[in-house]
């Protein structure tokens, strides 16, 4: 295969019917100023929040998509993302790819992303989000730590990044840095061991909204 040809292999256990992405897909509803906003280097960029030019497009050797079969796991019957090798504290695990789209709209019918559980803000001020519900990469399988057996807390986080490969803002999954997980001697032992599930905190807002939706549904 020639070097310039696109890859066509999705990772193992990738669901049929959901396109596997190597690069973001851009909604035609994005305005020029929104595109310009996400392509402007943030002045306060933290040097750790970068996807380096050298990072190859997926599938990623860092992670494995795995079906969850443990009945004690709250996402049993779905999939999760697991470390395929030992991951160091603070290490970039995998970029978060999906459809880049306007976050809100006054159009009748909405954006179609309102109900998505895979939608993250890319640039709140510019009203741009990235949704991996209908297309994406491995990062869409990261579960929340709440209720997961033996997981007292998250071991990873979503962070806003600057993707040097495209000159564009993005989101990515990182292992929690040692400073956020432990202090003193314990800090040396953190990171994500090969085989562990990669778990973030979706935030209380996510679960609060979920509860409201369920209660409203149950009342009907
Ligand atoms: C971004 S997806 C994560 C991947 C998902 N497990 C899958 O296989 O597509 C978010 C969805 O995963 C499920 N989920 C993730 N973490 C959970 C948790 N701690 N408890 C219950 N459900 C969870 C919920 O259904 C949530 O809407």
TrEMBL record:
Residues 61-203 form the SET domain. InterPro entries: SET_dom, SET_dom_sf. It holds the Pfam family SET. This is SET domain-containing protein. It comes from Diplogelasinospora grovesii.
